[in-house]
Amino acid sequence: MTTRLQALAPWLAALWWGSLTTLGVVVVPLLFVHLPSPALAGGMAAKLFTAQTWLGTGCGLLLLLLNRPGQDRVDAGRAQSITVFVMLGVLLALLSEFAVAPRIVSRENLRLWHSVGSAMFALQWLCAGVTFWKVTRKVGSI
Question: What is the pTM of this model?
Fold first, then answer.
């Protein structure tokens, strides 16, 4: 992969991690503070989490393509480590969207599924953060 394309990896990882951070720490809490009802805020949050799922999935897929072992300047061990965190993060996003979110929307055991969804979001945030750290650190450094 050319160095120019490889230079996109930190930007993709930053977009993924930054969008998760912004959504979870700023946007969704503000929805619940400023919208007239929790139901309205929850509905809007659900739409934003869906958009985040697709943004994270797109960033993850592109990161997988850019960090394949055997590509120029990509260490095989580093690429494998990045791959694990990207795949886990994308899997968490997709499971949240297709397994957890429908249960929250249908208000099925809301406390349980909201807790599961929140934990999965936090783990996805952690995966994206580790990916960002691994993509931006210099090859051969700690």
Answer: 0.89
